[in-house]
Amino acid sequence: MTIAIKPFSITFDQSHLDDLYVRLNNTRLPESETAEDWDQGLPLQYAQELLDYWKSQYDWRRCETALNCLPHFLATIDGLNIHFVHIRSSRKDARPLIMTHGWPGSILEFMDCITALIEPATPDAPAFHLIIPSLPGYAFSGKPPKTGWSVEKTATAWDSLMRALGYDRYFAQGGDWGAMVTAAIGSQNLGACAGIHVNMPVAAPPAEVLADPTDYEREALVRLGWYRDKDNGYARIQSTRPQTIGYGLTDSPVGQMAWIVEKFHGWADCDGHPENIFSKDQLLDNVMLYWLTASAASSARLYWHSFDEQNRPEVHVPTGCSLFKQEIFRPSRRWAETRFKNISYWNEIDKGGHFAAMEQPELFVDELRNCFGGMSL
Fold first, then answer.
1. Minimal CA–CA distance to 346: which of 311, 327, 319, 306?
2. Whole-angstrom Cα distance, residue 208 to residue 197?
3. Report field, pTM of the whole predicted structure over 0.90
4. In angstroms, rounded to a whole number, what is the distance separating the alpha carbons of residues 108 and 116?
């Protein structure tokens, strides 16, 4: 299959920003929550604070300029444009690595890790050529016009992309949906992927874990129970009615903001407030990638395709797992081994959360170095 690849730059006409500011100035907010803290969702006081900052101080052009300092491309795969960043290291021994984000994330998650991965300060640290795509239906990738773009199809597309770029052997990494895509690359094992790293290994808890959990496993089961009981309403909606929720999120920038920022609170290791770890600019930059590309519905459709997928095939390629403290799914090694059959690297980190590359970029880089440094292409 021949894949057409062309350079791409990010630019939005001023009319998009003018429309945004009109909508922000005409925002109709609900009354205040009746529960304390974040138990009913994004608190009104913080929503108003972010809204005021968005209207008066936030600068999208700053983010746009920073993104355009990177080399962007579009590849047409199976009729769909796939956006990706491709940054080559100057090191002759650099190894190709494709890194995949999830929801409600974006390629911005990896921004603070890029330089350290492509040009490490010490010669004995591994270097990488980085390929960072936007998932189908996300940001600058095309919106699939028909069903079929599941985790498995995306994994196959990523393998085709790497081969089209001239990489006959490569590594793959991901968190959230990126972890699912990366695991699918490993399970498909089409011959080019030499190993994977995930910071959210997903596997069903085996009977022995449920019957006699360790302290670590008990904490993981409590976290998973919290997600199922209190936090997965967004996923139930996006996996069943992505089109319906898309109308509201595509029409209301504050609605889109609240839908996303609430997760940066609940999933990050932020000690109760997202700005303990993220800046307002970081939060709004990520929101803007969904808002400006009107990708609320198209990004949610990945849940419709794959969220309830019970077929999670075994992975036999070398696998590294980094378990950050506040991750949603944080299985023990014996739990993860029910699916990942060739774990060559395992580490449990006492800080960081779901957005590990954004929250703890130095630790995240170290994890990738330690994982892939022990694998061979």
1. 319
2. 25
3. yes
4. 15
Residue 273 in tokens: 């407030």
Query: Can you give the residue ranges of every domain in the chain?
Result: 42-373
DSSP β-ladder status, 170-174 and 193-198: parallel
Calpha distance 327→360 (Å, rounded): 13
- Can you read off the two tokens belonging to residue 359? 């929250």
Nearest to 194 by CA among 164, 171, 163, 226: 171
**Residues 339, 315 contacting (CB under 8 angstroms):** yes
- pLDDT higher than 70, residue 310: no
Q: Top-level CATH class of 42-373?
A: alpha beta
> d(Cα 287, Cα 273) in Å, to the nearest integer?
17
C-beta of residue 108 within 8 angstroms of C-beta of residue 43: no
**What integer pLDDT is reported at residue 308 of this predicted model?**
81
Tens digits of residue pLDDT in 52-75: 999 999 999 999 999 999 999 999
Helix segments in 310-355, DSSP class H: 333-336
List all residues 6 or more positions away from 189 whose beta carbon is below 8 Å from its beta carbon. 316, 317
Rounded distance, CA 182 to CA 197, Å?
Answer: 8
Average pLDDT over residues 168-181: 98
pLDDT score, position 120: 97
